[in-house]
Amino acid sequence: MSNSVLSVISRFLEEYTTTTPNKLKVVDAYLLYIMLTGALQFLYCLLVGTFPFNSFLSGFISCVGSFILAVCLRIQINPQNKGDFLSISPERAFADFLFAHTVLHLVVMNFIG
Amino acid sequence: MLGVSGHFCRLTGWCVAGLLSAGLLGLFLLSLALVGAQALTPSHHLSLSDVARLHSFLSQSFTDLESAYYSIVGLTKLGANVADQRIPVSNETRDILLAAVSEDSTVAQIHRAVGALSSLGLPLASQEVVAALTARINKEDNVMAITLALHTAARLSAQADFVGILEEIEDLTARLDDLGGVYLQFEEGLEATALFVTAAYALSDHVDMEPPLKEDQVIQLVNSIFSKKSWDSLAEAFSVASAAAAFSSNRFHVPVIVSAQGPATVSHSQPTLQLLVTDVLSQPLASASVLVESAYAVASKSVILSQAPFTLNDGVFELNFMSSQPASGYYQFTVAVTGDSRLIANHVELKVKVSTEVAITNMDLSVVDKDQSIGTKTTRVDYPSKAKSSFTADSHQNFAMSFQLVDVNTGVELTPHQTFVRLHNQKTGQEVVFVAEPDSKNLYKFELDTAERKSEFDSISGTYSLYLIVGDATLENPILWNVADVVLKFLDEEAPATVQPKTLYVPKPEIQHLFRKPEKKPPTVVSNTFTALVLSPFLLLLILWFKLGANISNFSFSPSSILFHIGHAAMLGLMYVYWTHLNMFQTLKYLAIIGSLTFLAGNRMLAQKAVKRIAAEQSSRLAKYRSLR
């Protein structure tokens, strides 16, 4: 059983490294970073406590929001999805990404306290 | 010349009516209606001291003719003898006086002229005067003028036709204001009311016709006129003296004042009830006969006396009430004064108190065991001595006391209002008071359950002096008797260590305000560790990007891209400043400025990038197409 899981994972990784374009790998690295940051914040909250709760929420939601926006960007700039996003060029996707981040950070900063 | 200035028209500003609001009036009337058809009796009159005061007020030395008139005539009305004044008269004076009697002079002038003429004994035409007066009354329709007209008419000969003038009395009576059913007066004031009364009775006596005043109205007038006991001016004092003389000596209505001499109390030592029966000037009515129509006890409503006469003794009417052997208490008397057909308000209600002395008999003290196993030992104590030995009671015993209260004279058992048992701790000054209650046979009993009552004593054991207090309104000898000493033993562990006086008015301890404690923070080490931990994925990101070969070699130094990057950096800086210094509104303001710049620059930059990308794609497609061919 574990054998098959391991083989699936190694095959997946191999395919990933060969077929994915570099641009997407950069975004994937960014996604990994965001996820780790959010997970570590959550771990702190579990271990030490929720004081101050508003700061924790703002940090965690910032991670979650950034992750979502980055995923949206990745989907939109993936050349394989070009057919779904005919009116949205990669530049346009990046501009939307930046604008959404501005709004997110405004809210996060307000809530950090 | 007897010239009197028209100061009858001067009104004293007397506002009593202002105090009685409509509501009070209504309530008063309602209470009077509920009380029933009790006849109105005068509530005010001139007592002997009031008459003396009026006399001395009128005896002021006079500086002008007006004061002389008031003083002399007023004193004469009160019965004082005043020296005669003689004035010579000339023919011219007489003609002037006669000429004054006409329609063209005011009522006051006519009054003065007629007064002068009749006082000087000069003849005058009564019918002419009446005609002039009637004409003037129609023109001067005020109270003072009509009163003067009545006065004038009283000086004319009795044969004149007075019908018109007599009707004025009734008209003026209708103008009087009824205040609460007790007072009746003109709104012009006391002087006007008193002068009207004088004039009405003077004229009525002169023509021998009863004035159209009802008995209740006369009493109300008496109340109004004699309620004021100090007078502002000679004119006012004069009017009151005139009214008093009118009420005490006219031919038709003489109000009677009945009052008890001293307090209306009878007892064995003072068995006679003494009444003063006088007129409004406090002069005794010698010809009257006074009779008790009925007397009944207020408590039991049983009639004690009926149709019992008073005997006149040295100006005072007496009745020996104790001979009827009444029990102590309050009695309601209805007294009737007869003997003169002119008397009014001659049925009076009086409340008489019969008081007595009390004696305490059969005072028995005992200490009873709660389980009744040991027989009680009662000690008899006689008033006013004290029990020789003290009584001891602890928590297993009750202290009991029983006694009877009897009337000294009749031996009847009494139940006074106040029968208290007071226990006074000699050492601490504490005192506790209980009430002794009578049972159905009027035997007073008091029982002290030591265990039950320990809270009232604060569980303080010790010697208490026992006092019996007896009192009542109808008792002449209230009693405070130290009966015995009682030693009370409470369970010691319940007693407070020291006797705390009740500290009610001492400043209370200060309340310290507790501010909200800040929440417990985790130690700094933990926070620092986790901060480092959370920042570590960034390092990982940089490493990964470096490994992937991400670089900025494609960075075009066009102005729009530079501007865009500066603007973007500024926006991130603004976020930090927002966190530290600004509020949302300021941030939005700055963000709008920087954001629009960044947007424009970024738009330009991305457009350029898009153009480049499309060109690169086209060239690569062209290359692929060429290689395929």
TrEMBL record, chain A:
GO BP: protein N-linked glycosylation
Keyword Kinase attributed: no
Keywords assigned by UniProt, alphabetized: Endoplasmic reticulum, Membrane, Transmembrane, Transmembrane helix
Residues spanning the membrane: 30-49, 55-73, 93-112
Pfam families: DAD
CC per GO annotation: oligosaccharyltransferase complex
Pathways involved: Protein modification; protein glycosylation
Membrane topology: Multi-pass membrane protein
Subcellular location: Endoplasmic reticulum membrane
InterPro entries (UniProt xref): DAD/Ost2 (IPR003038)
Record function comment: Subunit of the oligosaccharyl transferase (OST) complex that catalyzes the initial transfer of a defined glycan (Glc(3)Man(9)GlcNAc(2) in eukaryotes) from the lipid carrier dolichol-pyrophosphate to an asparagine residue within an Asn-X-Ser/Thr consensus motif in nascent polypeptide chains, the first step in protein N-glycosylation. N-glycosylation occurs cotranslationally and the complex associates with the Sec61 complex at the channel-forming translocon complex that mediates protein translocation across the endoplasmic reticulum (ER). All subunits are required for a maximal enzyme activity.
Family: Belongs to the DAD/OST2 family.
Subunit annotation: Component of the oligosaccharyltransferase (OST) complex.
PANTHER family assigned: DOLICHYL-DIPHOSPHOOLIGOSACCHARIDE--PROTEIN GLYCOSYLTRANSFERASE SUBUNIT DAD1
Protein name per UniProt: Dolichyl-diphosphooligosaccharide--protein glycosyltransferase subunit DAD1
Gene that encodes the chain: DAD1
Automatic annotation (TrEMBL), chain B:
Domain Ribophorin II N-terminal span(s) in chain numbering: 46-84, 89-248
Ranges for domain Ribophorin II third: 362-488
GO biological process, one term: protein N-linked glycosylation
Spans traversing the lipid bilayer: 530-550, 562-581, 587-606
InterPro entries: Ribophorin_II_2nd, Ribophorin_II_3rd, Ribophorin_II_C, Ribophorin_II_N, Swp1
Subcellular location: Endoplasmic reticulum membrane
Keywords: Endoplasmic reticulum, Membrane, Signal, Transmembrane, Transmembrane helix
Organism domain of life: Eukaryota
Domain spans labelled Ribophorin II C-terminal: 515-613
GO-annotated cellular components: oligosaccharyltransferase complex
Its job: Subunit of the oligosaccharyl transferase (OST) complex that catalyzes the initial transfer of a defined glycan (Glc(3)Man(9)GlcNAc(2) in eukaryotes) from the lipid carrier dolichol-pyrophosphate to an asparagine residue within an Asn-X-Ser/Thr consensus motif in nascent polypeptide chains, the first step in protein N-glycosylation. N-glycosylation occurs cotranslationally and the complex associates with the Sec61 complex at the channel-forming translocon complex that mediates protein translocation across the endoplasmic reticulum (ER). All subunits are required for a maximal enzyme activity.
Membership in a protein family: Belongs to the SWP1 family.
Record protein name field: Dolichyl-diphosphooligosaccharide--protein glycosyltransferase subunit 2
Organism: Myripristis murdjan
Highest classification ranks of the organism: Eukaryota, Metazoa, Chordata, Craniata, Vertebrata
